[in-house]
Amino acid sequence: MTGIDDLIDxxxxxxxxxxxxxxxxxxxxxxxxxxxxxxxxxxxxxxxELGFAEQTNYDDPPEARFTFESYVVSAHRTPDLxxxxxxxxxxxxxxxxxxxxxxKSADLPNMTASIAYPLPVIGVPVQEKSVDSVxxxxxxxxxxxxxxxxxxxxxLSAVQILAREHADLIERLETEHDDLRSGVAEVSRGxxxxxxxxxxxxxx
Length: 204
Ligand code: AIR
Fold this sequence. Notes:
The chain is an alpha/beta fold. The protein contains 7 helices and 6 strands; from the N terminus they run H-E-H-E-E-H-E-H-E-H-E-H-H.
């Protein structure tokens, strides 16, 4: 069984390893519980669509140039792991963190933002009732956040941040946006040309 101390030790060892930034994940996805996974999977979908690969072994990066990693880190059950993750994030090569938590005490995003500062953290309130606790930060302690459940947008925002440094990501974001526009065009024409009944029954 993996203990929390082992996870914490691994994070510190990775931070000390001083790896080339091309071999480390650019984006870290963390969530308060594995029960958040369905909601946080939107970030996974967006990153995959933008050509990011998941790095599951820090010492053995995938071939893709851009990668992300994912962990469960609970602000309340494992505050020591949260602290270690935030504290080592920049030295481990991360450029941006996407942090999701649910419930009324959704403190992982806001606390990680404070610990990892000045690394940007994008908070995802997993439920509507989590919004206030994710975004309610005092002056001088910033967090960027998306609406409840919008982890897909959190990933797009993360890639927008990365794209300031990596021009080829701009093109991927533009292609993503063009696909979105084509999708609207397709349903718009379908709705108009088939009419409402025809559109509703189009798969029959
Ligand atoms: N949570 C986990 N540790 C601290 C907090 N606030 C959040 C999780 C999840 C919710 O509590 O992010 O959305 C319920 O977690 P669980 O594990 O009981 O399903």
